[in-house]
Amino acid sequence: MFSRNISAIKGVHRTIENVVSRDALKDGRILCCFSQRRQHAGRHRQVHCTPVNEAAFVKNLFMGRLIKEDVFPYPEISVEKFQEINELCAPIEKFFREDVPSKEIDLAAKIDDKTMQALKEMGLFGQQIPEEYGGLALSNVEYAKIQEYTSYDGAIAVTLAAHQAIGLKGILMAGTDEQKRKYLPKLATGEHVAAFCLTEPSSGSDAGSLRTRATLSPDGKHYLLNGSKIWISNGGIADVFTVFAREDVVDDKGEKKDKISAFIVERKFGGITSGKPEDKLGIRGSNTCEVHFENCPVPVENMIGEPGSGFKLALNILNNGRFSMGASGGGIIRTLIGEVVEHAVTRKQFDTKLKEFGMIKEKIGRMAISAYVMESTAFLTASMMDRPGEKDCSLEAAIVKIYSSEACWEHVSQALQILGGLGYMKDYPYERYLRDSRIMMIFEGTNEILRLFIALTGLQYAGNELKDALKKLKNPMSNPRFIFSSFIDRVKYRMGMKKDMKIFPGEGGIHPTFKEQTKKLEECVGTFYYVNESMLSKYKKDIINQQLVLKRIADISIDIYSMTAVLSRATRAKVNGIKNNDHDCLIATVFCNEAYDRVMENVRQLALSPDANGDSTIERISDEICENRAYVASHPLTKEF
Questions:
Q1: pTM, whole model, 2 decimals?
Q2: Residue where a domain terminates, one of 419, 443, 467
Q3: Residue 401 C-alpha from the chain's centroid
Q4: Do 505 and 545 fall within a single domain?
Q5: Of these residues, 142, 148, 278, 444, which one is catalytic?
Q6: Domain that holds residue 454
């Protein structure tokens, strides 16, 4: 057994060196979602709850560590801050509930001038811009809170997010003081609207293949920008664009390299044309169009960051904006719960109110559970991002985006099912919610790409530490304590004896009410480490091509992070005696029990992959269909032989 353990970690070492490197990831065409990584040299750490400062919470899960201090206790705000946020949000909520003409916006496929002006006057175009530039200077938690209300109208939510979450974010994150002084004041008031120009006809998820080019003028004073961007939110109404383009960059060795840089581009520079607005399924009132650049002159001082640093900036912008989707999704589902319940308690079928039917109860209950998970993960992640320091929360944000977008789509559909024919009619807003919510699984990184991002980034982090373990295993006489501890951990795991993570009970830990759920969480975290090690050892450098394996690894991390956030929030509710805390406990118990079952099923499927669990068969079916470019199975009425 001990020799197998050494072989497994050797396999991990080879995999990390040969596969989960930057070059290998680039070859795999999924580098586009990866944020800037930090190398984590240092000592091997066992599976326990010791604080680790180098990485955020989810990365540590891949090494079987639950860093309690990251998630317990659930973040709180002062009474004064709570009142301040409520005062800020009250008029916004009232405006979106009572004054926004969402039906007319959807039919006209345009946000009317009156509504746009009201949004500007409320400061919603400058939510996270510092006060010195005229913004509201909101924290990530406060920003997420406002998204609960702006989500009432998907078109407006997208317009605002395209402006500040991505459109002007590059200036905030990497702009010079001069750039900030020049652009942020007008962007904060909404006098100028921003757009984010990354996607091209030849590069969607594979953003690294973009072709837009920036050529330095002979006098070195400006760049000439040429190329086309597609599906640009605010593309037809924006005054300021953050544009990503290739240029020739000379490196430290004097060699010329083709790299991506970021630029602040004003429409008034000239050479910019916008295509006609796209006719979309949902979020119809938001402006989406192509943007073309033809010899657009951009002053050299309008480059954001260093030459060639645009790719990292684009990824960091996208990675930092996804967390708010949980708040948006939670806001949508909470609103729908109110509408659905009103219908269920009044509508009768077979002389029985709908609320009495078991299948209706199940739908309403699951809507509430999913909304609770969205809120719990979104505000926990926002709080992590607000803390001092530079922990990379891109995995947490991606998890929030994946879970919230998929749950939102599912439960908006279930709400329509409860409402029946009423939900299907355009006289009511429910079908618009359905159309609007579908985009959430596509934009800001498709959920498929984000699952690969989560799995491979986590495996890379684990592999960096496992390389150090391999060095110690190669020289056992110099590291007897480590060798013995590693051997004992492996024996215990094989025997089903899970390592005590000491997160229950204890100061700042999970409430004793959730003793069973805590044990399940501990088991999930401990098992996850061995699963990751096993999969890397099994597939070695081919792990990057095993997308169904990576999908299950990502899904496990999604469930574990969600379990942790839910238990942390429910514990706070229980400890503080928050109103309806018993209801919180019911939700937390059901979700954690079901999440545990999903994790263990994914573990089982991973052990069977790819042949014994049907993965290879499903892929073969797809291959045969693609080869024939059609449905291959015979028609049930065919008589051909």
A1: 0.88
A2: 443
A3: 4
A4: yes
A5: 444
A6: 2-73+448-620
